[in-house]
Specification:
It contains 19 helices and no strands.
C-alpha cells in the first residue's frame, strides 16, 4: 500500500506529504508540548492495531516516524530548526501554486479562493499566514477591484475578516449566537465568499489557543477602544469607509462589547496621534534591552562549556599546554636548587648570631642601630675642661651650700667675707653681679 493511502485510510490525512504537525493532527506551529505528547499517544494507539497482520512493516515504519515527530516537536532547539525549514518549504509551495492558479485574470476573487484552498490542502496554514500572503498578493496585483460594501480590495478584506473571526471565537463576549451573527454580517459586508469564510473559520477553530495569543485579540482584551481606533485608521489608510457610512466597524464593535454610541465617541479622536505607538516603541526598546542582557548572560554562562568543547575537539592544545607546564616545572626546579628561588615563596632562614651579644637578623635586612646613634649623647660634667673644673672646686669646696634667691641678681662673693651664705650665688664666680663673666684663665665655661 502506498504511503499516501496509508495516511488517508489509517489517519485521515489528505496531504500526501504531511509535516510533523499534520502527522500528529495538531495545528501547524503548535507551541504546547503537552498537546503534542497527547496527540502522539493517540496516533500510536491507532497504528498499533495494524502491527499484527499484512501491513506490519508499514505500521512499524509509521510508528518510528511518529516517535521522531514527537521527539522533534517537544525539544525547543530542534523545534525551532524544524519550523525554519518548514517555513521555507511553505514558501516554495505558495509560489508554485501561485504560478499555477494566476494564469488568467489575477483580480478574480474566485482565483484567490482556489489558490488559498490549494495551499491549505498542501498543509500550508493559510489563516496564520494571511498577512504576509496578502502583502505578497497586493504587491503583485496592483489594480485590485473594490469588493463588497466596504469598498476595499479582497486582500485587505480577507485580513480584516480573519481578525473578526478570531475576535468572535476568542473573546467570548456575549452569547455564541450573537457572536456568530456578527461574524456573518462582517463576512457579507466585506464580500468574502463562502469558501474562503469556511476555510478561515475552520482553521481558526482548529488552533483556537494559538489565535488567542494573536496581537489583535490581546489588544481587544486589554484595550478595546485602542483596538477599534487602530482598525479604523487602517481602513481609512486604504481608502475604505469607516464613518457614518461604514458598516464593518459597528459589526466588529459588537464583537468586543461596544455600542454604536461608544464607537462614535471613539471616532472623534481618530485624528489624534496614537498613544500606543509611543508605548510600543518604549516596550520594544525595553524588550531589546532585556534580550541583549539575557543574551549576554547566556553567552557568559555558556562560555566555560564552549571552552571545554573547543579544547576537547583540539587535543593538540592539551599537548602543548602539558609541554609548556613541564618546561616551567624544570626551570623552577633549577632555580630552587641554585638558591635563586625558594619554594612556596618562603623567606630564607635568619643567619645565626656571630657573638654572644648579637641578635640574629634575617638575610637581606640591616641590623638595628644602637641607641647612641638614634639620640645624641647628653653632655656630662666630666667632659668639661679640667682647668675650669679645678678652679671651680677650689672656690667652692665640698660642703658649701649655694642658695639662689628668686628675683635677686646672683652674686659670687666668697663665703665668710662679711656676707651670709645666702648671698653666695651659684652661677657667680668672682663675687661680681650677674651678667659678669669669670676671669679668663685660658679655659672656657661649658
Amino acid at each position: 500500500m502506498p504511503r499516501e493511502e496509508i495516511y488517508r485510510e489509517w489517519l485521515g490525512i489528505t496531504n500526501p506529504a504531511p509535516s510533523y504537525y499534520g502527522l500528529l493532527g495538531v495545528p501547524e506551529l503548535e507551541t504546547d508540548a503537552t498537546a503534542v505528547l497527547h496527540a502522539g499517544r493517540h496516533v500510536k494507539r491507532k497504528l498499533r492495531a495494524y502491527q499484527i497482520g499484512l501491513y506490519r512493516k508499514q505500521a512499524l515504519e509509521l510508528l518510528a516516524e511518529v516517535g521522531q515527530a514527537v521527539s522533534v516537536l517537544t525539544n525547543p532547539e530542534k523545534k525551532k530548526a524544524y519550523d525554519r525549514e518548514l517555513m521555507g518549504r511553505w514558501r516554495g509551495v505558495v509560489d508554485e501554486l501561485y504560478r499555477a492558479h494566476f494564469q488568467g485574470d489575477p483580480r478574480d476573487p474566485a482565483v484567490v479562493e482556489a489558490w488559498l484552498s490549494a495551499c491549505a490542502v498542501r498543509g500550508v496554514p493559510v489563516t496564520r499566514l494571511i498577512p504576509p500572503l496578502m502583502r505578497m498578493l497586493r504587491s503583485r496585483v496592483r489594480t485590485w477591484p473594490p469588493t463588497g460594501e466596504h469598498r476595499l480590495g479582497l486582500p485587505l478584506n480577507l485580513w480584516l475578516y480573519r481578525d473578526a473571526v478570531a475576535l468572535g471565537q476568542c473573546l467570548h463576549i456575549g452569547a455564541l449566537e450573537t457572536r456568530a451573527e456578527a461574524v456573518k454580517r462582517v463576512q457579507k459586508l466585506l464580500g468574502i465568499s463562502e469558501g474562503l469564510a469556511r476555510l478561515v473559520a475552520e482553521e481558526i477553530g482548529r488552533g483556537l489557543h494559538l489565535f488567542s495569543k494573536d496581537r489583535i485579540v490581546v489588544q481587544a482584551k486589554e484595550d478595546p477602544d485602542g483596538m477599534l481606533l487602530r482598525l479604523a485608521r487602517r481602513i481609512r489608510r486604504h481608502g475604505g469607509e469607516f464613518g457614518k457610512d461604514g458598516k464593518v466597524l459597528p459589526a466588529v464593535a459588537d464583537l468586543v462589547g461596544k455600542r454604536k454610541e461608544d464607537l462614535d465617541r471613539l471616532l472623534e479622536h481618530i485624528d489624534a496621534p496614537p498613544v500606543e505607538v509611543s508605548r510600543r516603541a518604549a516596550s520594544a526598546v525595553a524588550r531589546r534591552a532585556r534580550q541583549r542582557a539575557g543574551g549576554l548572560w547566556q553567552r557568559v554562562c555558556r562560555a566555560p562549556g564552549r571552552l571545554v568543547e573547543w579544547i576537547a575537539d583540539r587535543p593538540q592544545v592539551l599537548v602543548g599546554l602539558a609541554i609548556t607546564a613541564g618546561i616551567m616545572a624544570v626551570v623552577v626546579a633549577i632555580l630552587v636548587v641554585a638558591g635563586i628561588m625558594h619554594p612556596g615563596g618562603a623567606e630564607p632562614a635568619p643567619a645565626p648570631p656571630s657573638g654572644p651579644g648579637e641578635v640574629a637578623t634575617p638575610l637581606g635586612t640591616k641590623p638595628p642601630l644602637p641607641a647612641e646613634q638614634l639620640l645624641p649623647p647628653l653632655p656630662r660634667i666630666e667632659d668639661a675642661p679640667p682647668e675650669w673644673l679645678k678652679e671651680f672646686r677650689k672656690r667652692y669646696p665640698a660642703g658649701a651650700t649655694a642658695v639662689v634667691e628668686p628675683g635677686v641678681p646672683p652674686s659670687t662673693k666668697e663665703p665668710g667675707a662679711g656676707k651670709t651664705t645666702s648671698e653666695v650665688k651659684f652661677f657667680g664666680v668672682d663675687g661680681t653681679t650677674a651678667g659678669k663673666r669669670p676671669p679668663d684663665n685660658g679655659s672656657k665655661a661649658p
